[in-house]
Amino acid sequence: MDLALGGSLNATLHIPAIAQEANLDIGLDTFEELNKRTRHICNLLPSGPYNLKDLDEAGGIPAVMKELSGILNLDSLTVTGKTVRKNIKNAEVIRREVIRPFSDPFHPEGGLAILRGNLAPLGSVCKHVAVAERMLIHRGPAKVFESMETAVDALLNNRIDDGDVMVVRYEGPKGGPGMREMHQITSIINGMGLGDSVTLVTDGRFSGSTRGAMIGHVSPEAAEGGPIAVVRNRDVISYDIPARRLSLEVSNDELQKRLNEWRLNPPEPKKAKGYLKRYQSLDTSAGRGAVLETPNEKD
């Protein structure tokens, strides 16, 4: 459903986290596999012109599910006490411009893309249906920021140029700590008219309400010593969303040298107390749902 609607990127955190509690192996590869089988059939804001009121008037979630009935397990029991099949039996699409047939989608794949490469060995996430066509493949100079606040300051003081790749790090599960939303950055980028010319790459997160070339959940995160931790200003970053690739254009030897240097002198973690401090010390990467992992579970 999330992929058919072009919905939340946070689903790539929530669903794997819930699945782990049920001992199910669901990760970023699962989303990519399902993405190829699903189709983007409801083009909601910000990637399309329709809102939730339009979706409701068009038949709502049951109507979307009926269009997806060929790829859903219709015998699954739901919280209504009925199966999916019974829940959607009487559903119908009322506004075809809002909910397309599965055979005539807005996009031939689901709404999310999982990118990997030497900058995100464990994966990263973007909402490709909300990316301008000219930005689906891009390479540009990195401008590196250690927090959301410093990135916002650069934007508001006009230090970001067309073609730049903003790298915002130490905002992941451990680095945040807590993996804060980067909506302030994404909103300003689009509000300044830079959404079709500037890229954001971050180990933080943002929701499906984001438009533009925004690549989040980069794993491993900077606080774990992931490659995003050693990106330098003016390094060239390239990505190819259709090919699912995200790369830092430095040699393997240079990248390994930088990572070794980082490990010898890692930065002090952000101060945290209480539950956040516990989370900071025990959480896993975004690629695994950013869940807590106790020492016994590691064994």
Helix count from the secondary structure assignment? 11
What's the count of strands? 8
In helices, the fraction of residues equals: 25-40%
Largest sheet: 8 strands, mixed
Mean pLDDT: 93
Strand/helix succession:
HHHHHHEEEHEHEEEEHHH
The portion of residues forming beta strands comes to 5-15%
Oligomer: single chain
Shape annotation: globular
End-to-end Cα distance = 36 Å
Which residues form runs of ≥5 with pLDDT under 50? none
- Global structural class: alpha/beta
Query: How big is the Rg?
Result: 20 Å
Strand numbers in spatial order across the main sheet: 1-2-6-5-4-3-7-8
Overview in brief:
With 299 residues, the chain is an alpha/beta fold.
Question: Could you give the topology of this structure?
Answer:
Blueprint: H1 2-5, H2 11-21, H3 28-37, H4 52-57, H5 60-67, H6 84-87, E1 113-117, E2 120-126, E3 137-145, H7 148-156, E4 165-168, H8 183-191, E5 199-202, E6 214-219, E7 236-240, E8 245-248, H9 252-264, H10 275-282, H11 295-298
Parallel strand pairs: 3-4, 4-5, 5-6
Antiparallel strand pairs: 1-2, 2-6, 3-7, 7-8
